[in-house]
Specification:
- The structure holds three protein chains of three kinds.
- Chain A is about 70% helix and about 0% strand.
- Chain A is mainly alpha-helical.
- Chain A has a domain of about 180 residues: MetI-like fold (Orthogonal Bundle), CATH 1.10.3720.
- In chain A, α2 crosses α14, α3 runs antiparallel to α11 and α4 runs antiparallel to α8.
- Chain A is globular.
- By secondary structure, chain B is of the alpha+beta class.
- Chain B is built from eight helices and 21 strands.
- A six-stranded mixed beta sheet of chain B has the order 7-8-9-3-10-11, with helices on both faces. In chain B, strands 2-1-4-5-6 form a five-stranded antiparallel beta sheet, with helices on one face.
- Chain B is elongated.
- In chain C, α7 packs antiparallel against α8.
- Chain C is globular, with a radius of gyration of 24 Å.
- The chains are: A mainly alpha, B alpha+beta, C mainly alpha.
- The interface between A and C is large, with 105 and 108 residues.
- The structure holds adenosine-5'-triphosphate and magnesium ion (MG).
- Adenosine-5'-triphosphate binds next to β1, β2 and α1 of chain B.
């Protein structure tokens, strides 16, 4: 490797360095008391962390974030497997691509736009409730009942991101030797049994990728709760990222940074193992 | 042209399950203008050695010198591959699929300070020698295997490299055109007076091109010499078997009437030389015959043998036989199927090779 | 002897299979369907018409009404998304090729360097942007780029160059190692090898990465939200937010805005969806053979 080879990494390294600078700058701010009341920051140890963690909003927003990401991981995986199974057993490649595209389509639409659409779909009289009435189902108090607010957000997230697990499970299924499936068929196994006994047990990779991506993508959803509740203040929809934005707008800068550091640590705990053991092994080979 | 020497070169790959010694203490000097062949079985370290010469790998220990100048030492590449002026033909050709044959051949020249017209002239010159002028505008996928190999060769020699490296250069070619390809490489190398290093597990590649040969086994250079030397007096049975089919036999040398006799079962072959007692010998099939009477000078009758089975292979009948009262198998080639079960075996004693037990 | 078992005929099974997929697809398309139809309702109609009922007298007037509002944001978004994604993809690809070279070189510490850099680009790809808010705005303010195209582009590059490097490092592995070695023996340096040999051979992966990042940057809401304050610099997702307006307003304009804002990613998805999907697949670490 020559010295000039390092020119190639230069742009990535510069912007990577900016990213690191930002992350560490954030950590630095988190150890001060910078806020509206203390416009000139001074070192104050971990008091910002203590304040954030002891604030009324922290446990609720942490729970909301975990609810959102946890549900997305669970339901995303289940739905993804189901849809991938349906797609796998299609005999026509064209039909498979067609249906897969529909499931993936939401990924192309911005979360801000999704929020607008669902805001109206969740309208008590004019939204999907209208359809529920026709189908003989009860009205659901989507955004009008506080206990339904997080489930409403979770449904949007599942709708938006299920394309990912469907895609990755399908890829895993298609990677399994076709002759094994044919042998099972000759032994009289039903499609459902093949899915349960052969396809799913051999899709560890699909599971790892789907879980990591579902968690990471839903963990940073911001515009849905922000737009649905018209700002960062509605505590029933507040996730960690929304809470940190709220701390910022109310000028608790140090606390916002402390919370950001916590958020980054949670994300990093998933990103780095995923990157080094999930993604990178493809490159070494 | 350049003289290349390796001074106790080691290459050690660390793997999960311990270390692999791909090369062990290689000491070798390849002189300027020499056509050097490296022969060895699969996994012996041939490619590794060639890649170290090319600068694509660094020796873990030891030094590599080009004309007395150290180009790599103890895990460090000092002169990189781009500065060693090496032409290399890869096993799978490695032509750039996004470039035409012309652009492929011209690519090394674009890294030198050469005018466009001079470049074109050089490319056309080598293309003419290699008879690929008519396909210069084609992409690699539009070329036959033989043409691709010629383009790869053209790309390797267009910049007048100081050394031309060939790694299993013919293994991807049809057997049908392999011989003409070998002849082409030899003639080009001769004409351009190139230093050539050719690596292969096929002795035919090595013997058709090189005038000196190194044999490598499990990372060790076990024998270096002229092709005839390697062929006629291999250092070990392994070397002998690498070059061609050979019968490995155990026997005993005894003294009878003041003469040394090699005895294998009922077979008795008079030999010269000071061997005694238990010995291991190698006899190539072409030095054995099943006949009624010897036709030529130098052949002696060894005794009766029993034919076990006859198969057909490579235009010959391959006869497997055993001495009477011994179960060691001996292979002999014949032009016709042996008629009888028991026949007389003739041998050329001067061609018998003795190995250490 | 065949085992006696009550089984559905293959034909019935196949019909049920398609029915199941069609039901899932219809449910999945409801929001998109709602988005498209409701922009065609008149002000009169929206007051009482449920969101899932198609317009009785389709009209273009809601689109007319919002077109001028979205005109500037669409131009802004186009400028930012195109420049940011092109730059990210090219610069990130260079980084990806460097990883490839690095993974095949064995100098001391190359493994650690490679793991460190790779973790860094993965972090850049997946980090919640919101958690970089304060230092990022400070940084953009410090370099005097608040409320400007360069400011938005630089902030996107911080996240999308890593994304491109991550995706491309999977696509680059399809180029055989020996081709790179051949080029090196031919005297070419890595920069030249990248542009002359690697880039032409990874065009499909390059397009996939580019498309993926165009869509991502077009849809990014948070960065333009915090890095622009003047209306003339707004990008589409932020402009859209103004149309939430609570339930008091007329929703036909909201949906017209939603449709216009999604038009470009949707068109890209319909015509180049294959490349978008391959970008997603690379994000999962399975760039090979797709
Ligand atoms: N990059 C590498 N990493 C680890 N081990 C390697 C590497 N390259 C080669 N080896 C090991 O070194 C030994 C020699 O390999 P080499 O490729 O030089 O053999 P070869 O003589 O060229 O064989 P062949 O005739 O099959 O091409 C083998 O045991 C091989 O497994
Ligand atoms: Mg080899």
């Amino acid at each position: 490797m020559k010295k000039t080879s390092f020119l190639l990494i230069l742009p990535t390294a510069i912007f990577g360095a900016i990213l690191l600078y930002i992350v560490f700058y954030n950590v630095a701010i988190s150890f001060t008391n910078w806020s509206l009341l203390h416009p000139i920051p001074s070192f104050s140890g971990i008091s910002s962390y203590a304040n954030v963690i002891h604030s009324f909003y922290f446990p609720t927003s942490l729970i909301h974030s975990l609810e959102l990401s946890g549900s997305a991981v669970i339901f995303g995986n289940i739905l993804g497997i189901g849809i991938a199974g349906l797609l796998y057993f299609l005999s026509s490649n064209k039909a498979r691509t067609f249906f897969l595209s529909i499931i993936i389509l939401p990924l192309a639409i911005s979360m801000a736009v999704n929020a607008l659409i669902w805001l109206w779909l969740y309208n008590y009289n004019l939204g999907v409730n209208w359809l529920f009435l026709r189908l003989g189902l009860p009205y659901v108090p989507w955004l009008t009942s506080t206990s339904m607010m997080m489930p409403s957000i979770i449904i949007i997230a599942i709708w938006a991101y299920t394309g990912l697990p469907a895609l990755f499970y399908l890829a895993s299924f298609l990677g399994i030797d076709k002759s094994i499936i044919e042998a099972a068929r000759l032994d009289g196994a039903s499609s459902f049994k093949i899915l349960r006994k052969i396809l799913i047990p051999n899709s560890a990779n699909g599971f790892i990728v789907s879980t990591a991506l579902l968690f990471l993508f839903t963990f940073r959803i911001f515009s849905i709760p922000y737009i649905l509740s018209g700002g960062p203040t509605n505590i029933f929809m507040q996730t960690l990222v929304v809470f940190s934005y709220y701390l910022f707008t109310t000028e608790f800068f140090a606390q916002a940074s402390a919370l950001s550091t916590i958020i980054i640590l949670i994300a990093t705990a998933i990103v780095i193992p995923y990157a080094l053991y999930g993604i990178k092994r493809w490159i070494k080979k | 042209m350049v003289e290349i020497s390796a001074k106790s070169v080691y290459k050690i790959f660390s793997k999960k399950k311990g270390e692999v010694y791909a090369l062990k203490d290689i000491n070798l000097t390849i002189e300027s203008g020499e056509k050097f062949g490296i022969l060895g079985p699969s996994g012996a370290g041939k490619t590794t050695f060639m890649r170290i010469i090319a600068g694509l790998e660094a020796p873990t220990k030891g030094e590599l010198l080009f004309d007395e100048k150290v180009v790599a030492r103890n895990g460090k590449v000092i002169v990189g591959p781009e500065s060693r002026n090496i032409g290399m033909v890869f096993q799978n050709w490695s032509l750039y699929p996004n470039m035409t044959a012309f652009d492929n051949i011209a690519f090394p020249l674009t890294n030198m300070k050469i005018s466009k017209s001079e470049m074109r002239q050089k490319v056309e010159e080598v293309a003419k020698v290699l008879e690929i002028s008519s396909v210069l505008e084609h992409y690699p996928r539009e070329l036959s295997g033989g043409q691709q190999q010629r383009v790869a060769l053209a790309r390797a020699i267009v910049k007048s490299p100081s050394v031309l490296l060939l790694d299993e250069p013919f293994s991807n070619l049809d057997a049908r055109i392999r011989d003409s390809a070998r002849a082409l490489v030899r003639d080009i190398a001769e004409k351009l007076r190139l230093t050539v290093i050719v690596v292969s597990h096929d002795p035919a590649d090595i013997f058709s091109i090189s005038n000196r040969v190194g044999v490598i086994f499990q990372g060790e250079l076990v024998q270096v010499g002229k092709p005839e030397e390697i062929y006629n007096s291999p250092k070990s049975f392994h070397v002998a078997r690498l070059i061609g089919e050979i019968n490995e036999l155990k026997g005993k040398v005894i003294e009878e009437d003041g003469k040394n006799i090699l005895s294998i079962g009922n077979l008795a072959i008079p030999i010269s030389g000071g061997y005694r007692g238990e010995v291991k010998v190698g006899i190539r099939p072409e030095n054995l015959r099943l006949e009624e009477e010897p036709r030529e000078e130098g052949w002696v009758e060894a005794g009766k043998v029993r034919v076990k089975i006859t198969t057909y292979e490579g235009g010959h009948f391959k006869v497997t036989l055993t001495p009477l009262g011994d179960d060691q198998e001996i292979i002999v080639f014949m032009d016709k199927i042996p008629k009888e079960e028991e026949m007389k075996l003739f041998v050329r004693p001067s061609k018998i090779m003795f190995f250490k037990y | 002897m065949m085992r006696e078992r009550r089984v559905l005929s293959p034909y019935t099974k196949s019909v049920l299979h398609y029915i199941a997929l069609t039901i899932v697809s219809v449910i999945w398309l409801i929001p998109v369907y709602a988005m498209i139809i409701n922009g065609f309702k008149s002000n009169l109609e929206v007051a009482s018409s449920p969101v899932l009922v198609p317009p009785s007298h389709p009209t273009l007037s809601p689109y007319m009404a919002v077109a001028h509002v979205l005109e500037t944001p669409i131009i802004n978004s186009l400028i930012v998304a195109v420049i940011a994604s092109l730059l990210s993809t090219i610069l990130g690809s260079m980084g990806a090729y460097f990883f490839y070279v690095l993974s095949n070189s064995y100098f001391r510490g190359s493994g650690m360097l490679s793991n460190f850099l790779f973790s860094l680009i993965a972090l850049g790809t997946f980090i919640p942007y919101e958690a970089t808010l304060i230092p990022l705005t400070r940084f953009i303010v410090d370099i005097n780029l608040l409320n400007s195209y360069p400011g938005l582009i630089v902030s996107m590059l911080i996240f999308y160059i890593p994304t491109a490097a991550l995706l491309m490092s999977l696509f680059v592995t399809v180029v055989p190692k020996s081709l790179i070695e051949a080029a090196r023996l031919d005297g070419a340096g890595d920069v030249k090898i990248f542009f002359k040999v690697i880039l032409p051979l990874v065009i499909p992966g390059f397009i996939s990465t580019l498309i993926f990042i165009i869509i991502e940057s077009w849809n990014n809401f948070f960065l333009p939200l915090v890095l622009t304050t003047t209306p003339s610099m707004r990008l589409v997702p932020v402009a859209v937010e103004a149309y939430t307006g609570g339930y008091g307003t007329l929703y036909n304009e909201t949906f017209a805005v939603a449709t216009l804002a999604s038009l470009i990613p949707l068109i890209i998805f319909i015509f180049l969806g294959r490349y978008f999907i391959r970008g997603l697949v690379a994000l999962g670490g399975a760039g090979k053979g797709v």
